[in-house]
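Now read this:
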Amino acid sequence: TEVTEKLEEVVTIWIKQIRQVLVESEQMRREADDLGPSAELEHWKTRMSTFNSLLDEIKSSRVKKIISILQAARSKTLKQWKELDSSITIAANEAKDNVRYLYTLDNFFCLLAKASPVTMMEHVPSLMNTICMIYCISPYYNTSERVTSLLLKITNQMIKTCKTYLCEG
């Protein structure tokens, strides 16, 4: 029972740390007003890396041994642990899925940054169609908040590109 208590203390600390990561990941992002769409992709890549690392740690043999000992002891901390494990898996899947879909837009992001205003406008219809497809298909990127944030960043990039074009011309 002494070993069980020590292991429960360890798992309780892990639970607090994981909850903190989850809470921070759900907080409102503070971003500069002029960020382009590449920042959206970078955000999800960072988030994917964070949650994949966390998943790797949770699935490590050391953690699995501790959890199996607590399962044998019928520890009450396991209920919270399983809920957090599920939340992390969902967050990792969301980030991975969003990165996958945003990568389909990466070519457009490069075009928006380097094109002239006329050339840029030629690509807008296919860009919008791709965003519409992502909105319809993605299980996670299909909220108005996510698409609005992306469209805002795309607009920022278009404005920045036009300003550059005007200043150079």
